[in-house]
Write a structure and sequence with these properties.
By secondary structure, this protein is of the alpha/beta class. β2, α2 and β3 form a beta-alpha-beta unit.
């Protein structure tokens, strides 16, 4: 099955300066004011971001990388700001990355695991968010297993909400760090016309959904490849698209990988998988696993990615994960800088009273 489809248009709704809080003046850049304004109070998905705003995130991330390269990688941009990290799902990379990012900006950080909070006693999401705000939180980084939960939190929270991943819906910071990693490795830093393949459990992947928006916005020739049972709905999504932005949906792994500049393997999400979608993990690995043999069809300089955690031997072979062309550890490192950039920009927008 192969179908070429249009990309939907984005919805229109959806650091080293002086000490600053989201409720005070916008933080200033170490190199002067931001070159263009950031209007979003929350970041719940990337579909609200224009290409210019994505470019602003990339430029701000460059500045944060400069901060991280210092002997002491810390600036006072969010001093006096309270950042609460509330995760209803297990996480290592995203949760720790946000915590390190906030601390590098001198924020006060509170980490809450839902399993060890009053949520385990039946407290609702709304009550939890209101309690967190009453305890002084200015910014809330949230992960939830239910799609749309951060939107509900944003309705009741007086500060800024940053979605750390919700259900199958969105993972904005992951998509932006993936984009930043690609731009830093591709010659010229441009994705225009580059063939980018997302291979694996597309159906259950919030990472794939957010990457559809950012990669097509930057001009990539995007391909989604998986068994047909893991592509349900993506052809219909694309058929409602407009503006000439196209992506290809296929079950033909050979066609997808042919001359690919980038291949991003996705984890088979067994904890989300309904029965019957795959005959077995062994068969998936045999037909769709990213191996050195399959990778020979791609460009010799292909970039290999994976958002993690990996099921080595299932969606990606162990030797591919550590191949010199793999940027998987770069993705983790860049995640800190990107999340510093997002916290910094959101703090500034909230300080200006933005309601977007």
């Amino acid at each position: 099955m192969t179908a070429e489809v249009d990309r939907p248009e984005a919805a229109s709704s959806g650091p080293g300066g002086a000490p600053s809080s989201p409720h005070g003046p916008a933080p200033s850049s170490p190199h002067g004011p931001a070159p263009s304004p950031w209007h979003h109070r929350h970041l719940l998905d990337v579909d609200v971001l224009s290409r210019a705003e994505i470019e602003l995130v990339m430029r701000t991330t460059d500045e944060m990388r400069d901060v991280l390269a210092r002997p002491i990688p810390k600036v006072p941009a969010l001093r006096g700001t309270s950042v609460t990290i509330l995760f209803y799902e297990a996480s290592t990379r995203t949760r720790v990355s946000f915590e390190v990012a906030a601390k590098n900006l001198s924020a006060d950080v509170v980490n809450i695991a839902a399993a060890s909070s009053s949520v385990s006693k039946g407290e609702s999401l709304v009550d939890t968010v209101r309690t967190i705000e009453a305890l002084g939180a200015d910014m809330l980084v949230m992960r939830h297993g239910v799609s749309g939960a951060p939107y509900l939190a944003a309705e009741v929270f007086g500060g800024a909400v940053l979605n750390g991943g919700d259900g199958w819906h969105a993972h904005p910071s992951q998509a932006l760090l993936d984009l930043y990693t690609l731009r830093s490795r591709l010659p010229g830093g441009s994705l225009e016309g580059r063939k980018v393949v997302i291979l694996g459990d597309v159906l259950h992947s919030r990472v794939a959904r957010s990457n559809v928006w950012t990669l097509t916005a930057m001009g990539a020739d995007l391909w989604l490849c998986a068994p047909s049972t893991l592509l349900r709905g993506f052809e219909a999504w694309g058929s409602r698209g407009a503006a000439g932005r196209r992506f290809t949906v296929t079950s033909d792994v050979g066609a997808a990988l042919r001359d690919a500049d980038v291949v991003m393997a996705l984890r088979i999400q067994r904890e989300r998988m309904a029965s019957g979608l795959l005959p077995s993990l062994r068969e998936y690995a045999a037909r769709y696993g990213l191996t050195q043999e399959r990778l020979r069809a791609a460009s010799p300089d292909v970039i290999v990615m994976h958002p993690g955690p990996m099921n080595e031997g299932v969606e990606i072979a162990a030797d591919v994960a550590v191949d010199p062309r793999s940027v998987i550890t770069d993705q983790v490192t860049n995640g800190v800088a990107v999340r510093m950039a997002l916290l910094y920009l959101l703090a500034g927008a909230h300080g200006r009273g933005s309601e977007a």
